[in-house]
Structure formats: structure tokens, C-alpha cells
Automatic annotation (TrEMBL):
Organism encoding this protein: Streptomyces spectabilis
Domain of life: Bacteria
Any matching Pfam family: SCP2
Signal peptide extent: none
Cited InterPro entries: SCP2_sterol-bd_dom, SCP2_sterol-bd_dom_sf
Species lineage: Bacteria, Bacillati, Actinomycetota, Actinomycetes, Kitasatosporales
The protein's name in its UniProt record: Acyl-CoA synthase
Cited Gene3D superfamilies: SCP2 sterol-binding domain
């Protein structure tokens, strides 16, 4: 692997890491650290699976109200690692997450690299800033994308 911090993430028991601890870990990662994770396909897959699994637990139904939306997340791969796609389906006060691309038409698709994704979901980046700096591509409902973080308990770091 590439760095001590990336190796440290490889050894993490994600089930025992709180969202706040995860946010601090991500905040402490350099671009080189994230690249080491992003180019290690098994580790990248494990990190993405854990992040998306947490989305269901960190969902805030009271904030979502009657929102009904399918959000497609495309995390772009690098250095021969394929893109990873997940979908979050918000409906009836619940959030369901599934790996892969369904046949359903998403209300919004978010396309970003590994670094941007990790920073966004850990509270270390603002979605509007990522969009304005072209590090986040939004296809579909831009207003939904801009306010998406309010539907999840994301630590403030």
C-alpha cells in the first residue's frame, strides 16, 4: 500500500468507529493517503461498503419528511480501478441503500472522485463548494443535491 495512514485504515474495525472518529480520520488524510486507498481495490471497496451501510443508520427521517427520491452515487475510480455505483432510495421516512445501478431513473446522480466522496460524507467538504469547483458533477435535481447532507447525521469537524 502507500502510506501509514492508509495502512491504518486497512486495519480499522469500521463497526467500532463512530461517525465523529471517521470524520477525524478522513480530515487527517492527505491526497497521497486517499490515493493509496483509492488504488487498493479491495480496501476501497470495503471503505465504500461501510460508508454506504452507515447511510441507512445515519438517515434523519424527520428531516426528509415526505421526500421521495432515488439518489445515484458514482464514485469514479482511478489508476485502473473501476467506478463504483451505489443508490440511496429515500421514501416513506426510510433510506434504503443498494450497491450497483438499478433500472430506475434517479432524481439526481452525483459523480465525484474518492477524495471528494470521503470528504463529503464525513463532513469535511461542502457539496455546494465541490459543485462550484467542478469536483462534484450533478445530473438532475441540483437543489436536492445541494441540500442532501441535511438528511443525514454528518459530524461537524
Amino acid at each position: 500500500m502507500g502510506t501509514d495512514k492508509a495502512e491504518g485504515i486497512a486495519g480499522l474495525d469500521f463497526s467500532s468507529v463512530t461517525p465523529e472518529e471517521f470524520a477525524r480520520i478522513v480530515k487527517g488524510l492527505s491526497g497521497k493517503d486517499i490515493s493509496a486507498i483509492a488504488t487498493d481495490a479491495p480496501l476501497r471497496g470495503r471503505v465504500l461498503r461501510e460508508v454506504f451501510a452507515r447511510m441507512e443508520r445515519q438517515f434523519r427521517p424527520e428531516a426528509a419528511g415526505t421526500l421521495k427520491a432515488l439518489i445515484r452515487w458514482q464514485v469514479t475510480g482511478s489508476e485502473g480501478v473501476e467506478d463504483t455505483v451505489y443508490e440511496t432510495d429515500i421514501a416513506e421516512g426510510a433510506c434504503a441503500v443498494r450497491a450497483g445501478r438499478s433500472e430506475a431513473e434517479p432524481r439526481v446522480t452525483l459523480v465525484m472522485g474518492d477524495a471528494e466522496f470521503l470528504k463529503l460524507v464525513s463532513g469535511n467538504a461542502n457539496p455546494v463548494t465541490l459543485f462550484m469547483t467542478r469536483k462534484l458533477k450533478v445530473v438532475g435535481d441540483v437543489a436536492l443535491a445541494a441540500g442532501l447532507t441535511r438528511y443525514f447525521d454528518i459530524p461537524k469537524v
